[in-house]
Write a structure and sequence with these properties.
single chain, 5-stranded mixed β-sheet, 5-stranded antiparallel β-sheet, about 30% strand, binds flavin-adenine dinucleotide, binds uridine-diphosphate-2(N-acetylglucosaminyl) butyric acid
Length: about 350
């Protein structure tokens, strides 16, 4: 492997690696390479790397990306670390977290400091910088509920810009950074507003049942976090053992009319209220359609969670993408619902 060094003013030297293997940098475990690879551990390095000519892709923990093949430009890995309290009042604490910090480490930090708001988001893989990209969510909470602001570097100019919540246009697995401002900014840090006397949110899914099984009566933040960790471990495959990127598809929101038709045919179809219609679990559709646990070549739908596509060892990104297209077309043909991918295809 070849490397060369670039100079970051008033700071340090930055290593650029050529033809760098990315297997360890994507949770699908795909054996692809980057023409160039660099890791930025501070904001000066992020700004310097923005000046690099040619295509660039911003990478955090690689837990929501599918590489179709080798990347022909620079993979810029965001790795700046740090968690700092910047302000507090009687009820709340504002915490600025650098983008390269692991999301779950931040959750553990919050739980440790008895600050509430992110405990339901325990054990989500990836970095803090990627969390606003799709407004990560689980167990009834999305980060928009604790989001204050973020600092981002505009790739074209190297300028630092602050984004407040309204500007981020958060939605279900959505933000402005996946839409109008796609590939235009590097998120450098995120400020969260956490609660000193939090209202616990244990109504969703199996949380209260799991707490009961744990023998808990009055749950603490730590116990809610532990319950979420336990549920997630029982449902989702560990990428260290079986390559995956969590939910491959989003849960579709369909019209009331289509929902009424489906419900007439499948009276037990699970459903949740949504802003512009009815949300139904993609995992249910995929399972009903017979794909759950099905393996095709080196890929397939996980046996415990139909929404999770897996790499059984030697899959290529293209193979997983082609399989996902088959699932999309099959579900569409049988239920009239078109699934959208959650995973970012590179
Ligand atoms: P990456 O995969 O590296 O990147 C994702 C996208 O964000 C890419 O488009 C990338 O270009 C961009 N990006 C990354 N960092 C930055 C940055 N600093 N600035 C600008 N752009 C950036 N997600 C959920 O919402 N809820 C879940 O419950 C959940 N469970 C999961 C379970 C498993 C087992 C796995 C493997 C994934 C799961 N995910 C879940 C998906 C994933 O963990 C999240 O989307 C996470 O936020 C991705 O973080 P990352 O650092 O790995 O991002
Ligand atoms: N279901 C099935 N078969 C399956 C899987 C699910 O029928 O194989 C049905 C069941 O009715 C179940 C319902 O789907 O009750 C919901 O399943 P689950 O609670 O496992 O959640 P999900 O909708 O599959 C979503 C998120 C997850 C998040 C969990 C918990 C999306 C796309 N996925 O999954 O996020 O962790 O809820 O809140 O919204 C991710 O985004 O990567 C991710 C893992």
């Amino acid at each position: 492997m070849q490397a060369f060094i670039i100079f970051v003013p008033q700071n340090h030297l930055l290593l650029m690696l050529k033809n760098h293997p990315l297997r360890a940098y994507n949770t699908f475990g795909l054996a692809v390479k980057a023409k160039l690879f660099a890791e930025a551990t501070d904001i000066a390095s992020l700004k310097k790397l923005c000046q690099h000519d040619g295509p660039k892709y911003i990478l955090g923990g690689g837990s929501n990306v599918l590489f179709k093949g080798d990347y022909p430009g620079l993979i810029l890995r965001v790795a700046n670390k740090g968690i700092q309290v910047i302000r507090e009042d009687a009820e709340q604490v504002w915490v600025e977290v650098q983008a390269g910090e692991a999301w779950h480490q931040f959750v553990l930090w919050a739980v440790e400091h008895e600050l509430g708001g992110v405990e339901n988001l325990s054990l989500i893989p990836g970095t803090v910088g990627a969390a606003p990209m799709q407004n990560i969510g689980a167990y009834g909470v999305e980060i928009e509920s604790v989001f204050d602001s973020l600092e981002a570097i505009e790739i074209a100019t190297g300028q630092q810009v602050t984004f407040f919540k309204e500007q981020c246009k958060f939605g279900y697995r959505e933000s402005i950074f996946k839409q109008a401002l796609k590939n235009q900014f590097i998120i450098a840090s995120v400020t969260f507003r956490l609660q000193k006397n939090p209202q616990l949110n244990i109504s969703y899914g199996d949380i209260s049942k799991t707490l009961e099984e744990m023998g808990v009566q009055q749950a603490s933040l730590r116990q809610v976090s532990d319950a979420v960790i336990q549920i997630r471990r029982s449902k989702l495959p560990d990428p260290a053992e079986l390559g995956n990127a969590g939910s491959f598809f989003k849960n579709p929101v369909i019209s009331q009319d289509l929902f009424a038709q489906l419900q007439a045919e499948y009276p037990t179809i699970p459903n949740y209220p949504a802003v512009n219609g009815v949300k139904i679990p993609a995992g249910w559709l995929i399972e009903q359609d017979g794909w759950k646990g099905k393996q095709v070549g080196n890929t397939g739908c996980h046996a415990r969670q139909a929404l999770v596509l897996v790499n059984y060892g030697n899959a290529t990104g293209q193979e997983i993408l082609d399989f996902s297209t088959r699932v999309i077309e099959s579900v569409h043909a049988h239920y009239g619902v078109r699934l959208d991918r959650e995973v970012n295809v590179v």
